[in-house]
Amino acid sequence: MRYSIEGGSLPVLIVSLDPGEKIISEVGGRTWSRGDVVTETTSGGGAGKALGRMLTGESLFMSTYTAQGPSEVAFTSSFPGRIVARELAPGEVILAQKTAFLCATAGVELSVHVNKSAKTGLAGGEGFLMQKLTGPGLVFFEIDGYCKEYNLQPGERLVCDTGVVALMDSSVTMEAQMVKGFKNKMFGGEGLFDTVLTGPGSVYLQTMTIPKLAGLLLPFMQKK
Length: 224
What we know:
This protein is mainly beta. It has a single domain, classed as Mitochondrial biogenesis AIM24 (Double-stranded beta-helix, 4-Layer Sandwich), CATH 3.60.160. It contains four helices and 19 strands. The chain has a six-stranded antiparallel beta sheet, with no helix packed on it. The chain has a six-stranded antiparallel beta sheet with strand order 11-12-9-16-19-14, with helices on one face. It has a four-stranded antiparallel beta sheet with strand order 1-2-7-4, with no helix packed on it.
């Protein structure tokens, strides 16, 4: 399987498939295809996993695209940003924000991850539920805005605004931390909580989210 990512800030992923090769996405994920491609809709692992995916913002069912001959299948991002590819080894796990999953090669398992900390789930911006992707295989994610990757060393901490964590290795610990100081809480402009990531592992941060963009546009929207 070969792929290319084109389009700059409005990216498209074009996957070239040889006969018999497959790629999976949520239902309706494909934007266009070229060549002889058969589409099959499945629950992707049973009712339990399907319900878990729905709770993380994905569709109840999955689509599998199988090439009958040399083919192309294209997937586009739903928001200006970047498409990120990650190769997962057998059993390797990466966690993603809701709706980040774009598509993956057959063999990658998509399920739900529950944040055990109530404070992190309520205040962390990423919510109680995150997407859990398990290898082996190649998986593609859509990231809002610019994507910055950090490789945290054991015990190294990264403090960021809530909601900007797009992806992280399962070895990374995430928790919500209340901003210290009354004046910082009331007038600091950064919110009441920060998200704290602790290594080891890779994390991917996004510079723009849909809620953040909506907040910036709100003062300019006229009330009817």
